[in-house]
Design brief:
Elements (H helix, E strand, L loop, with lengths): L11 H24 L9 E5 L3 E7 L9 E5 L2 E8 L18 E8 L10 E5 L2 E7 L17 H7 L2
Length: 159
């Protein structure tokens, strides 16, 4: 009589090893993020265009407007600033720190069609809004179309 051996998946141990590796790397990544409260950060930015201007909106909660440096050089718009860690609460009282703190810098190339000399900045509810007007020559122009008579015939008939 033959004995029956239980068939084991050949890669059963590898699955366990893969799970262990994932867990170890996941723990390390999670621990690093939780322990580092001064992680460099880049605020989220939306940029859109209207008929007359380019608008840049940056989320800057808890950033003091006096800590912002906004400038344009060689058609590069740069927004710099810093979100400072709150010293009002003792460090040992924190249960979790997920928000990033410290200095940030974001830079964006501007088209030649904007007037970087006339940028307006507004800061409300933690959102910085930059309005960058377009140059007059870059704004769309409406061209009237004559209907009925060809433009040359009108010009010739007026002599």
């Amino acid at each position: 009589m033959r004995t029956m051996n239980r068939w084991e998946q050949p890669f059963r141990g590898a699955t366990t090893l893969q799970e262990q590796i994932n867990r170890v790397f996941g723990d390390m990544v999670g621990r690093t993020a939780e322990e580092s409260n001064l992680t460099p950060w880049a605020p989220a930015v939306d940029i859109y265009e209207t008929e007359h201007e380019l608008v840049v909106k940056a989320d800057l909660p808890d950033v003091n407007p006096q800590d912002l440096d906004i400038h344009v050089e060689n058609n590069i718009l740069t927004i710099r600033g810093e979100r400072k860690f709150e010293n009002e609460v003792k460090e040992e009282n924190y249960l979790r720190v997920e928000r990033a703190y410290g200095s940030f810098s974001r830079s964006f190339s501007l088209a030649n069609s904007v007037n970087s000399e006339a940028i307006k900045a507004d800061y409300q509810n933690g959102v910085l809004t930059l309005s960058i007007p377009k140059r007059e020559e870059a704004k769309p122009k409406q061209i009237k179309v004559n209907v009925g008579k060809p433009a040359l015939a009108v010009a010739a008939g007026s002599r």
